[in-house]
Amino acid sequence: MTKLTPQLLSSMVDHTFLQSTGTQAEAETAAADAARLGAYSVCVSPSMLPLTTPTVKITAVCGFPSGKHRSSIKAAEAQSAVQDGADEIDMVIDVGAALSGDFDAVRRDIATVRAAVPAPTVLKVILETAALTDDQIVRCCEIAESCGADYVKTSTGFHPAGGATVHAVELMSKTVGQRIGIKASGGIRDWAAAQAMVDAGATRLGLSGTERVLQGGTATGY
After folding, report:
1. Phi-psi domain of 10 (left: phi exceeds 0; alpha: psi -120 through 50; beta: other)
2. Which site in 49, 119, 160, 213 is 20 to 30 Å from 75, CA atoms measured?
3. Where are the domains positioned within the chain?
4. Angle at the Cα of 75 from the Cα atoms of 182 and 114, rounded to 5 degrees
């Protein structure tokens, strides 16, 4: 068990700003806040790039939040984001393909994006675990790892089924071990929830209320 400290927790956080009504000025403020709080990165929509104050690593989402974009569009979006300064890409799989058992489509989707943004760009694969069965989560994790993903990620934070759960993170950790990272996101609004996700195996956390969580309060939002 890893005992979190404010410094350790902040170093694991992708400080997230993905509101559909967000402005460029707000994205710049989020980047400045991420740096001030010691977060690992700021996570924004690709339309917010480039940021003029990139004093932390930049994560951009891809195919977000539905995952229902053609793989070629996801790949182009990811590649454009990297050209505009993104260090990491969080892509959403076609959750419907996983639900219907079309894991070949899931594989092609991830592989297409990975080919478009090879290392050293970090690729995280969002599974939307609250919408999947345990078996589907395991299969998607195995596929993501085999395609060269650097992380598997629980959730967009926008699905009505919910966000990260301890059970999902434990299952993901059991599947991928320590070979690739695990990002828990969606509904992590206080210190206890963050600690629980890390105890379950999360190595990165997606938080929008980063400062409130670090202060031991309860945050609202993503």
Report:
1. alpha
2. 160
3. 6-214
4. 45
Active site residues: 90, 153, 183
What six digits make up the tokens of 41? 């990165």
Q: How far apart are CA 37 and CA 56, in angstroms?
A: 10
CATH architecture of the domain with residue range 6-214: Alpha-Beta Barrel (3.20)
Q: Which amino acid is at 193?
A: A
Q: What is the pLDDT of residues 87-99, one digit of tens each?
A: 999 999 999 999 9
Quote the longest CA-to-CA distance of the chain: 44
Phi, psi angles (nearest 5°) of residue 15: -70, 120
Give the DSSP letter string of 53-87: ---SEEEEEESTTT--S-HHHHHHHHHHHHHTT-S
Going by C-alpha positions, the residue among 120, 116, 55 that lies closest to residue 91 is: 116
Tell me, yes or no, if the pTM score tops 0.90. Answer: yes
